[in-house]
Design a protein that fits this description.
Blueprint (H helix, E strand, L loop, with lengths): L3 H10 L14 E2 L12 E4 L6 E2 L2 E2 L3 H10 L3 E6 L6 H10 L9 E3 H7 L6 E4 L13 E3 L4 H6 L2 E4 L7 H13 L4 E3 L5 E4 L2 E4 L1 H10 L5 E3 L5 H9 L9 E5 L2 H10 L3 E5 L10 H8 L5 E3 L3
Parallel strand pairs: 1-16, 2-5, 2-14, 5-6, 7-8, 7-9, 9-10, 10-13, 14-15, 15-16
Antiparallel strand pairs: 3-4, 11-12
């Protein structure tokens, strides 16, 4: 999973587990979001590859958000980040100086916790995550096999310290005793400054490949996070919402399934340096518009 082609192929391989949507069979090139501002009452942005790369904002992104606000458009951030809580997500955008308020951010972790059942969850989490926002009993899982067998379900928040050895412990426990598995970040990978990291969605689909039941994915492209965005934008019809993202199978597919318009941002994210039109045709998955940067 170290090239765009292999990542794309894996998304296509699991396409049957993703939402379905219809597409017009073509996409239009634009120069900036100003070109389509009259088509939208709200713009929803993915974070990495659209607004920021790591801890640095993408040039022009902060100014573009300000300009859209000045035009009267609503702004939302929709991120598959599940490694830190909502306050942590808001703090990240404060450091990026983009003028984004906490109420304008929705993450896959938010969606996950809003639908979490009351049971003892075994949590796969970053070491610095204190799990204090989990609204149910929770126990951190590491290398002790008995810990996997004693919980009533699994909550996958982060791959920061995950490994194939721990994945084998999880799989063995589930094969012996099936229980719910909640994947709080549906991404297969995330682009980083020096390559791609494997994300919880990657390991969730490995379990699904083994026909392990009870796996539920949260975050783009699955509907719950989009529903939360819509609920935060009362009175705005779906076709007046524009999703801006850097991935076809998460940002674009999930938004199109809700009837939103879509923009693929090409310069800094997953498809940086790639011929995106070739991927559109291969997947029969066409954003409404495409542009280099917002």
């Amino acid at each position: 999973m170290d090239t765009v082609a292999t990542i794309f192929d894996r998304y296509e391989a699991v396409r049957g587990r993703l939402p379905s949507a219809s597409f017009p069979g073509k996409t239009s090139q634009i120069d900036s979001l100003h070109d389509i501002a009259s088509h939208a009452d709200a713009f929803v942005f993915d974070a990495y590859g659209v607004l920021n790369i790591g801890e640095a904002g993408i040039p022009g992104a902060s100014q573009r958000l300000k300009e859209l606000r000045d035009r009267g458009q609503q702004i939302r951030i929709l991120s598959n980040a599940a490694s830190y809580n909502h306050d942590g997500a808001a703090a990240k955008f404060r450091t990026l100086d983009m003028g984004v308020g906490g109420h304008e951010i929705i993450t896959s972790r938010d969606a996950t916790l809003a639908h979490l059942e009351q049971r003892l969850w075994g949590c796969i989490a970053a070491p610095q995550d204190d799990l204090s926002d989990i609204p149910a009993p929770a126990r951190r899982l590491v290398d002790d096999p008995t810990g996997y067998d004693e919980v009533d379900g699994f909550l996958f928040l982060s791959t920061e310290v995950w490994s194939l050895e721990r994945q084998a412990l999880l799989e063995a426990s589930l094969l012996a005793n099936p229980r719910p598995v909640v994947i709080a970040n549906a991404d297969l990978v995330a682009p980083r400054e020096h390559g791609f990291s494997l994300e919880p969605g990657y390991f969730g689909h490995l379990l699904a490949d083994r026909d392990i039941p009870g796996i539920r994915f949260f975050g783009k492209p699955f509907s719950t996070v989009y529903e939360m965005i819509e609920a935060s934008l009362p009175g705005i019809p779906p076709d007046r919402i524009v999703m801006c993202g850097d991935t076809l199978h998460t940002d674009i597919l999930g938004a199109a399934a809700r009837g939103w318009q879509t923009v693929l941002v090409e310069n800094d994210g997953l498809f940086s340096g790639e011929d995106t039109c070739a991927y559109f045709r291969r997947a029969d998955l066409f954003p409404t518009w495409r542009l280099s940067r917002i």
